[in-house]
């Protein structure tokens, strides 16, 4: 990576290092569709989305953006944008339908076509093994345990490692970067804590067990990948770390921030990078569990070395002493913490826009994890954009959001953070989990009735940023 530079004729230009990776990202359940085709079996999200009242408007991912049938068209869009990398996820139930056992040839063939098409287009494939679509059969396999199945069950971690081996054998000669898990916090605490994500359980103990088993799964899979992939391959993990701010400097508010940092951030950072559980987390959750489900050797396994850490960031969190909603995703903290609205503009998700939070996370990791390369693996915003009568999709708010956050990445680079790339979320408008199709994150507009793709102004803007290797300052907010 070379030093940052600004063009002499443009004092406000922000140039990124040579070789900086400019990407975009998607997730299988959100875009693929073809939910019951070619041997794919249900995931927990298929079950959850078909449960009345769980997803807005009763939407499901059965068709989504129909990427399964429009693969070539979507790769052509990426090539037109000039992205160097594409981060996609693999649907576990498409390639290993029962969650274990024989693989599905037709499912593997789809991802082979995707990877081959990307390479032919000059785009580097970045594969994520898990973006929340757990095979339903694994969630249903409880072995009679009161903890239930899925990620609350230890065996799921071993099935995940087997699945990692299947994919390494199938694509290891063509995919250079492998991410084990995407946002395990969401899988554990939104899926098992407050139930707003699949599988929809509301059990604080199950959420903590799930978090640990996800850490274990990551370590087990990382070891499998190391054994199966070329030495040049990269193994990574992506976390949605929380940029937590105390409402005031009072001891009570600062303790609230500490509690959220423990259950939101360090519950993954400490096992993965230090082979330990945070002592304050264990203390905070003593009323829920004694952590006896952590077996000898688990934390050493979770700490398998990785080549980079992915960071997903959208907005910061402001916390104060108080109490949170019930059921809560904040196991052990809900009776001590309340969330306060952050100042500033909001996205269509009602999330505050504050690029400083991304800068804060990157410099924190610079200091806490020296020598670990960082990649911004998701960053973007949902707005209520639409195709006007002339067919154009103007989204100046998204352009402003992206500009501010890329400037924050540049600032972190200038201050010594080793940031290797930026992946914009998302390539396409898609199925936005519990919000269904009501929220649009894409830089490509999708008319879900016709599946017509239309480049938004933000897509053209991003293509220009990639082509020149950085930002031109405030002027390029005009798109």
Automatic annotation (TrEMBL):
Provide the E.C. number(s) assigned to this enzyme: 3.2.1.21
A GO CC annotation recorded here is: cytosol
Known catalytic reactions:
Hydrolysis of terminal, non-reducing beta-D-glucosyl residues with release of beta-D-glucose
Q: Which UniProt keywords apply?
A: Carbohydrate metabolism, Cellulose degradation, Glycosidase, Hydrolase, Polysaccharide degradation
Q: For this chain's UniProt record, which GO biological process terms are given?
A: cellulose catabolic process
Annotated stretches, region: Disordered? 42-61
The top EC class is: hydrolase
Alphabetized GO MF terms: beta-glucosidase activity
Q: What residues make up the catalytic site?
A: 183 (proton donor), 378 (nucleophile)
Q: Name one Pfam family in it.
A: Glyco_hydro_1
For binding substrate, which residues are annotated in this chain's numbering?
30, 131, 182, 314, 425, 432-433
Tell me the protein family, please: Belongs to the glycosyl hydrolase 1 family.
Which NCBIfam families does the record cross-reference, listed alphabetically? BGL (TIGR03356)
Q: What is the protein named?
A: Beta-glucosidase
């Amino acid at each position: 990576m070379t030093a940052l530079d600004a063009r002499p004729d443009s004092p406000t230009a922000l140039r990124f290092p040579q070789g900086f990776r400019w990407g975009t990202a998607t997730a299988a359940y959100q875009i693929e569709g073809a939910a019951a085709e070619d041997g794919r079996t249900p995931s927990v999200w298929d079950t959850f989305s078909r449960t009345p009242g769980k997803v807005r408007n009763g939407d499901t991912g059965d068709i989504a953006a129909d990427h399964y049938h429009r693969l070539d068209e979507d790769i052509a869009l990426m090539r037109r944008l000039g992205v160097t990398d594409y981060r996609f996820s693999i649907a576990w139930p498409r390639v290993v339908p029962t969650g274990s056992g024989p693989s599905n040839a037709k499912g593997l063939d789809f991802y082979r076509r995707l990877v081959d098409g990307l390479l032919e287009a000059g785009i580097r494939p970045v594969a994520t093994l898990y973006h929340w679509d757990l095979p339903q059969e694994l969630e249903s396999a409880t072995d009679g345990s009161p903890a239930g199945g899925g990620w609350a069950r230890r065996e799921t971690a071993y099935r995940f490692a087997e699945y990692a081996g299947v994919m390494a054998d199938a694509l290891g000669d063509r995919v250079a970067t492998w991410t084990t898990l995407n946002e395990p916090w969401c899988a554990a605490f939104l899926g098992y804590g407050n139930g707003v994500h699949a599988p929809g359980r509301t059990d604080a103990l199950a959420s903590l067990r799930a978090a640990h088993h996800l850490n274990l799964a990551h370590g087990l899979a990382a070891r499998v990948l190391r054994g199966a992939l070329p030495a040049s391959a990269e193994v990574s993990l992506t976390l949605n770390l929380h940029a937590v701010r105390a409402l005031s400097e009072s001891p009570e508010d600062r303790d609230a921030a500490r509690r959220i940092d423990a259950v939101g951030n360090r519950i993954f950072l400490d096992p993965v990078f230090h082979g330990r559980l945070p002592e304050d987390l264990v203390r905070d959750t003593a009323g829920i569990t004694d952590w006896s489900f952590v077996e000898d050797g688990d934390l050493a396994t979770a700490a398998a070395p990785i080549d980079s850490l992915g960071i997903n960031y959208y907005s910061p969190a402001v916390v104060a002493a108080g109490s949170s909603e019930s059921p809560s995703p904040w196991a052990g903290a809900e009776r001590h913490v309340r969330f306060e609205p952050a100042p500033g503009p909001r996205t269509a998700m009602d999330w505050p826009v504050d690029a400083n939070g991304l800068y804060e996370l990157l410099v924190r990791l610079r200091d806490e994890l020296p020598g670990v390369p960082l990649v911004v693996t998701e960053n973007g915003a949902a707005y209520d954009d639409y195709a006007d009568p002339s067919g154009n999709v103007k989204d100046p708010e998204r352009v402003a959001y992206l500009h501010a956050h890329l400037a924050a990445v540049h600032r972190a680079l200038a201050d010594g953070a080793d940031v290797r790339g930026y992946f914009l979320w998302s390539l396409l408008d898609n199925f936005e989990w519990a919000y269904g199709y009501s929220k649009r994150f894409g830089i490509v507009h999708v008319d879900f009735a016709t599946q017509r793709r239309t480049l938004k102004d933000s897509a053209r803007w991003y293509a220009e940023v990639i082509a020149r290797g950085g930002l031109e300052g405030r002027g390029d907010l005009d798109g």
